[in-house]
Structure formats: structure tokens, C-alpha cells
Design brief:
187 residues; mainly alpha
């Protein structure tokens, strides 16, 4: 874990963009919950998503990938997603189910990630199924925000689909992280 906190790995453009995403969370919550300006909220969510894409591109293209960034980037994603889920709870009571699935999956994945980081001094990056899960979560949340008059049935179908993708992605993560733990323990 010593390499995790090296100054040159913390002070990078991709990490700064992740901090910007963290700073956008209260703006999104304020626009959605207090101003009821759904289009502006969507605009800030899209800006947040753009910074996520840009920070990943910069990190890979300019070799600025760091263990700190591998932890900070998903933290910004998960806090943004959790905020959106909680905001939408005011309109969709069925959102509780998605919040519970999200919470359980993320806590379990975080726990395994911490175990791997402590035992093997390694931080694992995102996988394709995690990125797909993120796209589905954001698409679902934005659809629910953009179309507040959507029927409860359609909203529930969207939430069920999102929950199923979330569970599938996390099962794949648990298998992947479990393999890492198993293989490293045999060495």
C-alpha cells in the first residue's frame, strides 16, 4: 500500500477530474431535489460522465494510471450513482429495492477489494462488465429523470432490468476477485 499514496500518483489530471465529479454531486442533488430543474440535472450528469470518460482516456493515453486513481474514480462513480438513486427515491418508492441491491453489491465488492489490496498490495481496475453496469445505471436514472410522467409499470421494468444487470456484473466481479484471492494464496 506504500505506492498507493505517492504524491506523483495522487496529483494527476485524471484524479483531479475525479475530484471534479465528486464536487458535481451536490450540484446534481440540488438541481434535481430542490430546483426541480431536471434538464439542468441531466446536463450536469452528462458533464460528470464526460469527465469520467476523459479521465480514463487521459490516464491510459498518457500513462497516468495509478492505484490511487483506481480507487478514486470508482468512488466518484459510486457516490454519484448512490446520490441519483436516493434522489429518485422521492418519486419512485420501488427505488428502495435498487438501493438495497446497489448497497449490498458495492459493500461486498469493496470488502473484497480491500482484502486484496491489503494482502497483495494490489488495486484492481474496472472490468468491462462494471463499465456496462455503470452505463445501464446512468441510462436508467436519466430516463427516470427525463420522463417524470413515465408510468409506474415502465419505471418498475427499467428498475428491474437495472437491478438484474447490477447483480450480474457483481457476480462476475466476485468471481474475478475470488480467483485473484485464490491464485495469490497458492503462491
Amino acid at each position: 500500500m506504500k505506492r498507493f499514496f505517492k504524491k506523483n500518483q495522487i496529483l494527476t489530471i485524471p484524479n483531479l477530474l475525479s475530484v471534479v465529479r465528486l464536487a458535481l454531486i451536490p450540484v446534481i442533488v440540488w438541481l434535481y431535489s430542490y430546483e426541480k430543474n431536471y434538464y439542468a440535472a441531466i446536463g450536469v450528469i452528462l458533464l460528470s460522465g464526460a469527465t469520467d470518460i476523459i479521465d480514463g482516456w487521459i490516464a491510459r493515453h498518457f500513462n497516468m494510471i495509478s492505484d490511487f486513481g483506481k480507487a478514486l474514480d470508482p468512488l466518484a462513480d459510486k457516490l454519484t450513482q448512490a446520490s441519483l438513486l436516493i434522489c429518485l427515491l422521492s418519486k419512485y418508492k420501488a427505488m428502495w429495492g435498487l438501493i438495497i441491491v446497489f448497497g449490498i453489491c458495492e459493500i461486498a465488492k469493496l470488502t473484497l477489494g480491500i482484502i486484496i489490496a491489503k494482502k497483495h498490495d494490489e488495486v484492481n481496475g474496472a472490468k468491462w462488465y462494471g463499465k456496462a453496469n455503470t452505463v445501464i445505471i446512468y441510462a436508467t436514472m436519466m430516463a427516470l429523470i427525463l420522463f417524470p410522467q413515465m408510468s409506474d409499470v415502465l419505471a418498475s421494468v427499467l428498475m428491474l432490468f437495472c437491478g438484474a444487470v447490477m447483480i450480474a456484473a457483481h457476480i462476475l466481479y466476485f468471481i474475478s476477485l475470488g480467483k485473484i484471492l485464490y491464485e495469490r494464496s497458492r503462491k
